[in-house]
Amino acid sequence: MKIALIAPPYPLEEAPSPPLGLSYVAAICEAAGAKVAIFDYIVSRYTPEKLRQDIDSFNPDIVGTTAVTMNFRAAAGIIREAKQYKPSLITMMGGPHVSFDIEATLGQYPEIDLIIKGEGEQTLMELLPLITDRESWPKINGIAFRSGEEIVTTPPRPLIEDLDTLPLPARHLLPMSRYGALGFPVSVITSRGCPNRCIFCLGRRMVGYKVRHRSPSKVVDEIEHLITYYGVDRINIADDIFTANKQRVKELCGEIIRRGINFGWSAFSRVNTVDRETLKIMQDAGCDSISFGIESGNPEMLKRVKKGITLDQARAAVRYCKEIGMGTHASFMIGLPGENHQTLSDSSKFADELEIYYGYHMLAPFPGTTVVEEIDQYDLEIITDDWDCYDANRAVVRTSALSSSEMDDFANAFDKIQQKDWEDIQRRHSENRCTPYESLRVEGDRRMRLIFKLLSEDIIADTGTFPKNGDNPTSELAYKIASLTETENDFVHRTTQSLVDAGYLKFESSNGHISWFWTHNGHVDRLPITSG
Question: What is the CATH number of the domain that holds 47?
Fold first, then answer.
């Protein structure tokens, strides 16, 4: 059995990293005896023509994908294209959006045969040996499908009790060198589950209220593998709440320190789950930044959305971070139920009071969240179900006191201040008047955007083969890239040379021609089934 898993396009602004959930799915499919390929369209260009080429090359029996709400339509569209091109394919989709929007998904996309609900690994292990026998599908918990005109949803599957039984994510199927070139952290989970009841979050619905932990040794084994095999130097712990259990944090950090592993990492946390001692242990193990979801500076709003924190707890958590010198970021939300000018002003004042990096994002009322399922109980109206708009960068709701445009105006005013500061830094950089840190920011941003353009537009694949005209193929490639991207040549040359030095780009010489290509985990990455 051959299974093609698709990583659908994802915007640069969302800091794409190797897709962790899809990598777990791939590992389970391999454990079930399937031959698996990942068509990665995050760090390469997607076109229907390329999809058809990839299908022809790998010739899968099954095609599957996963998506969040904001890229659901793109992912479902790729499944539709695949099914129309090869009708014999069995198609499936998983992830938080489809898990809680089953009727609409199967109704609007007849090309999707199966939905895998919630935590899907054990479901797949049971499903795959029987997947060609549609008569057996009703016996398998955790899926949904059509039976004639009827949509069948089987009972939910219990959550996995022992996460150590899961195989490591199948990152060997991903073009890891491309992600390395892009430079974002690689995500790792140490636990699943969230005991909190925030009305805007899907975490507890997808992975349960009870926090289930992986053993510290297994986690650190995975980290060591990422560092030694893939050359990863930065990791993000993507748990819903990494600090939910302080003893577990202490054990994990102790294992990192005991093994003498040096790497930088970050984590998500809650202000009511940290103290100075825990943060210092994390710092000693390499953690240099932490992100808190505070959501609002209005105490009544925090109660309304069942955030379960207080502003004093937020002040204390930030103070602990400052005392030990840990980088701290806070996120605030716009458009919560009952939002008005005063609550937004409270958030703004509180965020400024903390004197740390912070940002805003819009409430995106995802299917399955309490705020959607019980919306009649809240001062909130959803104004669109265009899922492409659910990127948390634009208002898709309104309250009795605030229109969506007023919410956008608040966010835009904040963004204009940030943009002006950024433009000032860029101007000083162009005049050689900025600080070394500011210079690193500007160069890093330019580098990231250039590399993402190279990746997402397949520039190396399309233009990386040319006659050998000199003794420096890197300079020739940089000149071509600079011309195509209308970017200053010296900067492009520095960036290209760094990609070559890191081993992300290599070339072969044959018959008087140079052919450049992205590497793949230390191997040539020119096959459609791995490069997309």
Answer: 3.40.50.280
Task: Give domain status of residue 446, yes or no.
Answer: no
Residue 530 has pLDDT above 60, yes or no: no
Number of residues written out for the chain: 532
Q: What is the dihedral sign for C-alpha 179, 185, 190, 193?
A: negative
Strand partners, 152: 145
- Nearest-Å Rg of the Cα atoms of the chain is 24
Q: Do 199 and 313 share a structural domain? A: yes
* The one-letter amino acid at 335: G
Phi-psi region of 423 (alpha: psi -120 to 50; beta: other; left: phi over 0): alpha
Give the residue numbers spanning the domain of 500.
458-531
CA of residue 38 relative to chain centroid, distance: 16
Q: Given 345, 361, 377, which residue is the final one in a domain?
A: 361
| 163 falls within a domain | no
User: Exposed e or buried b for every residue in 370-389, given b needs 16+ CB within 10 A?
Assistant: bbbeebeebbbeeeeeebeb
Pairing type for strands 2-7 and 35-40 reads: parallel
Q: What's the token pair of residue 75?
A: 């992912």
pLDDT of residue 526: 41
Where a domain ends, among 153, 175, 199?
153
Name the pLDDT band for 16 (thresholds 50, 70, 90). Answer: confident
| Structural domain count of the chain | 3
Dihedral pair phi/psi, residue 312, rounded to 5°: -65, -35
SS3 34: coil
> Is residue 529's pLDDT more than 90?
no
**CA–CA dist 305, 447 (Å, integer):** 39
Residues 6+ apart with CB under 8 A from 138: 147, 152, 154
| 407-456: pLDDT as tens digits | 999 999 999 999 999 999 999 999 999 999 999 999 999 999 999 999 99
* Backbone torsions φ then ψ of 387, nearest 5 degrees: -65, -25
Domain contains 376:
no
At 486, is the secondary structure helix, strand, or coil? coil
The answer for 242, left when phi > 0, alpha when psi is -120 to 50, beta otherwise, is alpha
Q: What is the DSSP letter of 236?
A: E
Looking at residue 520, its pLDDT comes to: 83
What are the residues whose beta carbons fall under 8 Å from the beta carbon of 174, sequence distance 6 or more? 7, 18, 19, 23, 38, 40, 521, 530
Name, in order, each residue with C-beta under 8 angstroms of 423's C-beta and a sequence gap of 6 or more: none
Strand, coil or helix: 42: coil
Confidence band of 525 (pLDDT split at 50, 70, 90): very low
- pLDDT tens by residue, 480-510: 999 999 999 999 999 999 999 999 999 999 9
